[in-house]
Each structure stands twice: as C-alpha cells, then as structure tokens.
Write a structure and sequence with these properties.
Number of helices: 10
Oligomer: single chain
Strand content: 25-35%
Shape: globular
Helix content: 25-40%
Structural class: alpha/beta
Order of helices and strands: EHEEEHEHEEEHHEEHEEHEHEHEH
Length: 311
C-alpha cells in the first residue's frame, strides 16, 4: 500500500537533496475517485479474472468521455473502491521525484492504508490532521500535540450526542473517526436538513461543520490539515508549499500554499470558491486529477527551469 512500506520517494535527506517544494495533496475526488466521480469508464472485472490493486486496462470512450487507461487504487471487502488514471499516477511519480509529496486526507488511518498510489511518501496526514505518519507509522509526538490542542474544544462525546440528535430520522449512520471527529452519512444528499442550528451549536464548542456529498462532518477547529502540513514543512525545511484539494476542509491548506489547484468538481466548485493563487482545472473527474498534477509540476519547473543546450 502507499503508506505501508518505508518511505523513500520523498525523503528530504536522501542523497543530500535539499527540498524546496512540498506538495500537499488531498485524496478523495482530488487524486482518487469512485467509479461515479471518475467520470471515465472503469476497468471491467469479473470473479473469474479479477484485477489486482494497481492493475488496469485501456478503456474506450463512453458517453463522450476521452479514452484513458484507468487503474484500481483501492479495494475494500474484496471489491474495487477507488480509481485513478495511469497518466495521473505517472505525473504523481514525477512529482514525487522533485518535491516532498504529502498525501493529506480526512480519511481514518485504516481507510488511508487501503490506498495504493504507487509511491512511498515519507510523510502523510490522515484524519484531517489528527495523524502525522512518518514512514507509514503515526508519529507519537504529533499525537500528543493534537491531544493537547483538543482540550480547548468541547469533548468528542458531546459532539457525538449532538450529531446523533441532529441525524435522527434521516441519516444512515453516525460515526466517530479515530476518536477525533464525527461524521454523519445520509441515505441521500437531499435528505440532509438545514445545518444552521447544528453549526451554531458546534461553533459554540469550538467545532466546525461542513457537508461533502452525503456526509456531514463535525471537526474540532484545532484539527486542520494545514497544521499538520506546517509540521511537515518544519521538519523538512521546504520553502514553497503547493496544494490541491476539492472540499471546504481543504481551504486552510489551499490558502496557505504559494500556489494551489482545485478540480472543476466537488464541494469548492459548487460554492464557486477560489483565491488569486488558486488554479481551477479545465475538466472534472479523473482528467482533473491529471491536470492538477501537471499544473503543480509546471510551477516547480518554472521555479527551477531546466538548462538548455546551445549548439
């Protein structure tokens, strides 16, 4: 899996390399996509000849989609869960060679470990900043820092009770994520009622509320992706932050970046959110994943242009 092996690809000390750029990359709907959100035909699998994680095939256009080679990057309970294009994974590998690549996700630790992007990042961030992984393992010093920070917010049990009360009658489930935050999953996005009252109650306790598709997240304000990214920058000495993400929970990370990209889909696209230094991809779905990585590589190459040979 992406983070189950010792990190070597983004080790800033490897071969004496001094890192300059750090690329903080959200996962779901930014780098990896469900069959529905990919907006491309996916590899056809069958019980007789199942594709392993990372395997794929060339698929032709369907309903106007461009031809693309799509591969499975996550499997859950024996079934394909998430996909990416071969072009995107190739660009990601190139980015990993020239920058400190940091996958950053709201997923739990177990959910993150299901994903295989074909690289071995030295650092990764899960649970919206609750876990800082170093060589695939949670860093205990960071865990202690997070625990101390969360003492200023209302207890998790209190927010869970509020969420359960709010979710009564329309939600499919209410869960806590690694004992750090709470999320509610609706049967359908249209079932989610107005969030104003829940948001006011959460904010009074030092928590925030956001909606992503069928999910409603209640997250302590002290728990952000960017705070963990700041710690990685401190440890690596990187000077330029690049970022990509599609949700409200990514906004602090996108705003803190020197250059950022968001896809032309997702929560931020629906809100028409942008900032002067944020680029928006031309396409949505898996093609957006390729385009945002290409844009980040262009920024790095602009900062460090390749020398030309004179004849």
């Amino acid at each position: 899996m992406t983070n189950a092996r010792p990190g070597t690809g983004s080790d800033p000390t490897a071969a004496g390399r001094v890192p300059v750029h750090l690329a903080a990359l959200d996962l779901d709907k930014t780098l990896i996509f469900s069959a529905r959100s990919l907006l491309l035909p996916v590899p056809v699998t069958s019980p007789a000849q199942d594709l392993p994680a990372g395997g794929g095939q060339t698929v032709g256009p369907v309903a106007g989609a461009e031809p693309a080679e799509v591969v499975e990057v996550e499997r859950y309970n024996g079934a394909p869960q998430s996909y990416a294009t071969v072009g995107e994974l190739t660009l990601l590998a190139e980015l990993d060679r020239v920058a400190v690549v940091v996958p950053v996700t709201t997923r739990t630790l177990a959910q993150y470990r299901r994903v295989d992007l074909g690289i071995r990042p030295r650092y990764a961030i899960a649970a919206n900043g609750g876990h800082l992984l170093v060589d695939g393992e949670p860093d205990p010093a960071w865990a202690a820092t997070v625990a101390a920070d969360l003492t200023d917010c209302a207890p998790l049990a209190e927010m869970l009770a509020h969420a359960e009360q709010f979710a009564a009658g329309w939600a499919r489930l209410v869960r806590t994520a690694d004992d750090l935050f709470v999320y509610v999953v609706a049967h359908a996005r249209t079932d989610i009622p107005d969030l104003t009252a829940l948001t006011a109650r959460a904010e009074a306790g030092g928590w925030s509320v956001s909606q992503q598709g069928r999910k409603v997240y209640l997250v302590p304000v002290a728990l952000t992706k960017q705070r963990a990214v700041d710690e990685v920058r401190r440890r690596t000495g990187t000077r330029v932050q690049l970022a990509a993400g599609d949700s409200v929970l990514d906004i602090p990370m996108l705003l803190a970046a020197d250059a950022a990209v968001r896809p032309a889909h997702g929560e931020l696209h629906e809100l028409a959110w942008t900032a002067p230094h944020v680029t928006i991809t031309a396409d949505a779905g898996g093609l957006a994943g390729e385009q945002l990585l290409a844009a980040l590589l262009d920024r790095i190459h602009a900062d460090h242009p390749m020398p030309t040979t004179r004849l």
